[in-house]
Amino acid sequence: MSNGQLCISLNTSPSRIEVFYTKKAGSTIQARLGFRTNSADWGPWKTISTGERANTTWNMSYPCNKKYVGLLQANGQTYETPPAGPTC
Prior knowledge:
mainly beta
């Protein structure tokens, strides 16, 4: 993912999952952010321009014994973060 940076954040107080994408180069894209454990959960499609930071938030509790992967879908491809686990 040479045109930007994709991150996932697992938060408490309140409990939520956030996925961020910062677009650093290239042309404007139509993309959606998501996360997965066993299956994927997607946010809405967004237009993301160079220099913009897009994020999608899921306000939810999550079990501590799973790994979570941040997702970006754009141009017919899906990009992933390394797996992250919450510290509970």
